[in-house]
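Thread title: Can someone regenerate the structure for this chain?

I was given the following input by a collaborator and told the matching structure tokens would be attached. They weren't. Posting the sequence so someone can regenerate them.
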Amino acid sequence: MIISRARRSTSNMDRTRAAARPLAAPVTVMAFASGRTVALEHGGPERLTVTDPAGRFEVAIRFTAAGPVLEVAALGLTLRSDAALTLSCDELRVNARDGITLDSQGDFVQRVAGDVRQEFAGALETCARSVSIAAQDGSVDVSASDDACIVGRRVLLNP
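Best answer:
Regenerated them for you:
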């Protein structure tokens, strides 16, 4: 393991331009046999960064006045918990290029305090032992640009 302490700066830069800028935070760098490096910036912005042998970012922790910020760039990420896994945040965004699968061996409950809007470029299919749709305050609207079909052994209207 190699440990070095250096100030980040751009060598070969005109000294006048460099003098006009504040000095970068001191950096402690550790290099591992795998080729990965860990850099610890301190004395100014505080950050711990891990890069791969090609110099690509893998993990960073920025320490801010509001709290730490964690960033991860990885081939895969697995979180395991023998008990509950809780995500608590102001807003949760999930972006997946190839698909999203949610599997539950138990019930699946969604609670939304506001409105829900679902938009699909393809078809939507709901399959269950039974399906119930209820509007507690207001109406249920069904519209289609083509036929609207109701198929059942018995179709009851206003039973």
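The longest strand covers residues 57-64.
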